[in-house]
UniProtKB/TrEMBL annotation:
This is Vacuolar membrane protease. Pfam families: Peptidase_M28. It is found in: Vacuole membrane. Keywords: Glycoprotein, Membrane, Transmembrane, Transmembrane helix, Vacuole. Its main location: membrane. May be involved in vacuolar sorting and osmoregulation. Gene3D superfamilies: Zn peptidases. It is a multi-pass membrane protein. The keyword Glycoprotein applies. GO terms for cellular component: vacuolar membrane. One of its GO terms (molecular function) is metalloexopeptidase activity. It comes from Stigmatella aurantiaca.
Amino acid sequence: MTLSSGRGLLLGGVLLGVLLALLWLRNEPPAVRSAGAAPGGFSVHQALEVRGRLMEGMGPHRVGQPALRVLRDRLLGEFQKLGLSPQVQSTFVCSDYGTCATVENLLVRFPGRGPHAEGRQAVMLAVHYDSVGAGPGVSDDANGTAVALEVARHLKSEPARRNDIILLITDGEEYGLLGAHAFVRHPWANDVAAVVNVEARGSSGLSHMFETGPNNARLVGFYAKHTARPSTNSLAYAVYKRMPNDTDFTVFKAAQMTGLGIANIEGVVHYHTPYDDLEHSDPRTLQHHGDVALGLLRAMAEEDFSQPPPGDAAFVDFLGLFVLHWPVGWTPGIALLGLGLLLAGAYRWSREEPVTPRQLGWASLGWWGLLLLCAGVGFAYFKLLSASGAAPVSWIAHPGPALAALGLLWVSVFWLLCALIARRTTGTARWIAVWAWWGLLTVGLSFAFPDAISSLLIPVPLVGLAAVLVPRGVGRVAVVGLGTTVAGCLMFPLVFFLLSSLGLPSLPLVGLLSGLMLASLLPLSPARWPLGWRLPAGCAAAAAVLSLWALRLSPYSEQAPQRLNIVYRFDQDRQSSRWALEGDLSRVPGPLAEFQQGTREVTAPWDTKPSFLLPAESIGLTAPELEPLHVETVAAGRTLQLRLRSTRGAPFVSVAFSPAARLTSVRVNGQTVPAQKERIRNRYGQWRAVSCVTDAPQGCVVELSQEGSEPIEAFLYDESPGIPPGRFSRRAEWKDFVPSQNGDVTVASRSLKI
Ligand SMILES: [Zn+2]
């Protein structure tokens, strides 16, 4: 069989298809082990029982809600059953989200045996026990608390390890990482060398190790050694850093702790909705979290962290079997070595079958054309889905037909490029161009993104070595096949990860990766295709049919509901009460059709996205107050002490100050509110928002320092969970649209000048 015989391409295509199917099946957490199958290991059965007791009848338990206190007591009870009595750290704290609350963290410490030459060292497992207002937070993060309790059960019966082990269960994670901010002030925080944080952004899927911090090589080494089913890629962290998500680990990192963050990201359509419940939570995910966390904690507990850290690692798991990891500084060297091997192989191949610069030029055009066209088709298809209303959100209910259509379009693009270049090039010229460009791209990226290109890097030295060593003849086809196999094994998991983590906006990137995989088959293209135009025409026709189907499908279903919040708003400035429909307003579902007869307006001065509004009957609400306690004119301007309180006893009360106000410091109950993150400032249109969670009737005391003495424009609002009964009391029966994040709430607002 020679490179361009056509049979090789058929085999290569089948190979890629088989890899896609196998890796798709492999993209699942390991099956639940039977009870007692792994003595000493994490028992998901115990964890499920504990989680069941914690979550029994439990609805949303947002910071400041009575339900959270019930859960706190249940957690304390579970620890007591194990003979442990956690410390409750109760602290009033403000975060850089602009939110302040009294949080109650639970902490348990298992003393280590030492030696403790340079003070005590501790490793920590961190999870959170609060939820958002819209859902019961079973996967996010009752799973984490169940892991902590099962870990505690093991540690209680095991001999002490070298380091102390701290279990930290934080409060107020969802409302601005408040519990983590509180913990970094706790005296134990100074002892913590490394953290494992268990999180969720969905209800199922593998437990990915997606987040690390500086000097991660040692911990990545532990992860590689002690994780039976690894799932990780240093690219994931590079992606995560660019996403608007934070975890408690973000705060620990800022406090100089190192660590690893693990999270599941499948079932993101359930995330922060009522469907993050027991029914939708995959027990395999809980088991996988537990296996990873317990293994890591045990290994970290024996490590001497006073030894200087070994720097950063680049890493990627291979088929979930093992983790390839190396010092990140080696990446350019490996890339250069790989490129050198590829060029040596290319020299060898071209000595046996000479290639001309013209052939190489056409082959290069094929490679670049394939990558860019696949990415472009991905981008255009994403735009089509968004513009047609088939994908108003990043994760839709039935992405299958659209993805299948796109796959067929990419195959058509591949054919098109083959038709363009195959007769003008030889198989050898195409092989040289494909891998020389891949190698050059890797070398180029290796200096700028040495940790993000692990999946791209590994095929380069492997294929280069094979090209140098493997004999001619059938060996050539084998080298091409090796390239396709390695590329598929590394790229398909990345494709699944991108689709889960970023949703449909990742289609251009997925196109690029698909182009890379398909490009590995370019050398096998026959000069004349036996089926001629029939193959691309068939693919395009099938893609068209699938696309028509995709465009007709509802983007929502009971399993992937639309996110809509119904808010009862009392606006004192207008002296009016209104119902507001907020969230994903791409469709107004039938039962809420009356909203279409209403008005569309923004409800806060910084809002850019109007809500649907309907007149509502008054229920006699009163707006919050900002009462001046003390105002003083000083040299630079004014200092103001104000009492912020909800006059109707709502647990959340907020004030936002106009961007025109030149505030130099903001304090709440004596705590400095750190400058807000850029992302939060943008969300509030540069208004400076401060929120306080309290059940104290006297509210919170806000202290401002202001440059100049112009009156400050302020917007006040409070928020209580739930909406008044009546008009929308059938809300819970409607299944394909659900509340999300804070959920359905009642808000009273007003503006004033101080
Ligand atoms: Zn969470």
